[in-house]
């Protein structure tokens, strides 16, 4: 299992060169059973990363391009009247897949954005009085452009909170971009094999749940979230859901690192990706917002009693 996880990370890292840390964060998010928000400028590899994750984890995949005229039914599905049977039949939308890439999610209207809330939280959708269960595993990977770009709608805090992690890819360094250009010139393909089956992924998620967390680590998490609530520096304090998210992701990171227990460095590795989008306002542009999560980490001693 561990070997398959490492092979998955290496395969995606070869596809998106120089971003191994972000790749490990993305895999940790999915192993923890959460949803991932990738927020960055266009052309940074957000969609490529999403395709790569679905491929290496052996999951079926659908992509929805969010636009201003997209309707909830375009994502969830719709009931259509069958004249021969004299009854309505449900036609499922693209959300009924293991991995659903909602591309440029903040270009859709708030009504369409909110259609994802029940699916992301409850793993089901309700349409015309009927409830339909989504497949398992089920992941939403959303990409988002910076708010200063034309035609974007900020995600509300309730929607941001549904994403277990938010990551950025950023520009590659010179060496990585050169390697990428040379690979393209040499015609190296971008398709990736599956290193895990769906059942193996579910087993890996169960093993993540079983990772041990000591009382000292729990106290460290509590000191971080408590400071966010007591200090005036953080207008959006971390909720109990956020503290649970920190623990889930720390356990997943420890699993990816090949350990059966969590250490403070696991918290520090995942904390910005778990906490930053919860601490800042949905109106804050990613390029201009202060790194509030780093302020929290620097203010709290992991070894304090």
Topology summary:
Blueprint: H1 2-15, H2 20-31, E1 36-39, H3 46-56, E2 61-65, H4 72-76, E3 77-82, E4 87-92, E5 99-103, H5 110-114, H6 116-122, E6 124-127, E7 130-133, E8 139-144, H7 157-160, E9 165-167, H8 174-185, H9 198-209, H10 215-230, H11 240-256, H12 264-279, H13 292-299
Parallel strand pairs: 1-8, 1-9, 2-5, 5-8
Antiparallel strand pairs: 3-4, 6-7
Helix pairs in contact: 1-2, 1-3, 2-11, 9-11, 10-11, 11-12, 12-13
Describe the fold and architecture.
Strand 6 and strand 7 form a beta hairpin. This protein has 13 helices and nine strands. By secondary structure, the protein is of the alpha/beta class. The longest helix has 17 residues, at 240-256. Helix 1 crosses helix 2, helix 9 crosses helix 11 and helix 10 crosses helix 11. The protein folds into two domains: 1-198, 3-Layer(aba) Sandwich (Rossmann fold), CATH 3.40.50.300; 210-305, Magnesium chelatase subunit I, C-Terminal domain (Helicase, Ruva Protein, domain 3, Orthogonal Bundle), CATH 1.10.8. The protein has a five-stranded parallel beta sheet with strand order 2-5-8-1-9. Strands 3-4 form a two-stranded antiparallel ribbon.
